[in-house]
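User: Teach me something about this protein's shape.
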Amino acid sequence: MAKSQYRFCVGPWNFSAGQDPYGPPVREEKSFDWKLKALKELGFEGMMFHDDDAVPDIDSKSAKQVLAEARALKRQLDDAGVVAEMVAPRLWFAPQTVDGAFTSNNPKHRQYAIDRSKQTCDIARELGTDILVLWLAREGSYLRESKSAGQATEHLVTAFDALLKHDKKIRLAIEPKPNEPMDHAYLPTIGHALAIAQQTRDPKRVGCVIESAHSLLSGHDPADDIEFAMSFKKLWSLHLNDQNGLKYDQDKPFGSANLRVAFNQVRALERTGYGKNGEFVCFDVHPFRTTREEHFLQHLANSKRTFVHLLKKARTYPEKEAARLIADRNYQDLDQLVLEHLMGV
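Assistant: First, the predicted structure itself:
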């Protein structure tokens, strides 16, 4: 298989000012123009967007205003030589989605979520991307008796079908996560995401996004999730980062917690040909809260640098020696082979 030429991408939220659920920002919030310039200087070709990243205060504006601002953003991105990789409706911030968006017990709130997501499809079209990412943040419950999982699945399919009907070219990329902010989440894994695709009106246009930390929070190896999704030809975007155990979603720099897990993700991308059709490698990472202003961008630069180093390791991996050890079922020495390859021994 031909080697892929990778393109890299980040989102405006990855220039975090350091706020978290337990404390306020610790760095100056940067303007969008500053972020766009920094992104380009770091060698990133794409930017991810939530709908209200593209059009701030989106719920206060008319449909005509929203599209006009989306078109203005497209001109700005074109001038900078940056591509909009995807757009996602930020449903989890709205007061109508306290009890869920597509799966709310209130039918008016479910309709709000569908209507806003349709508008996000329109923004995506203006920005030149056909990927609508659905992070189903509030789709779940704090109390299992408050909802029916079967009925919630029906609500999700109804919403997905409405979006697929609204835009005949849009592709829905579900980004599963097992927890946070919900105690129990619907569609918590890649398997759930790809399974529900089969219930929609156009399964070929329903795929997934894999985030390293989300796979780890599910107790899965993200490299396995990558190869699983790629076997269905439904991995349309990728959020690389790292995670130290089953804590909150940390969004650590790629490879920060477990270099071997990171290596296997890069190797999975190489083995499956991810990127050969123009798919982006996105880094959904945040600077440590302790980061000073002068080091603001290092989490992005370092994540890309780690990826490039691991790409070299993946492409120089001693495949023949590994195959010999596998044939001999000598997994002890295979284990050491991997470790020494990564250490440069």
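Now, about its shape. The first helix runs from residue 32 to 41. The chain has one domain: 7-316. If you'd like, I can walk through any region in more detail.
User: That's plenty for now, thanks!
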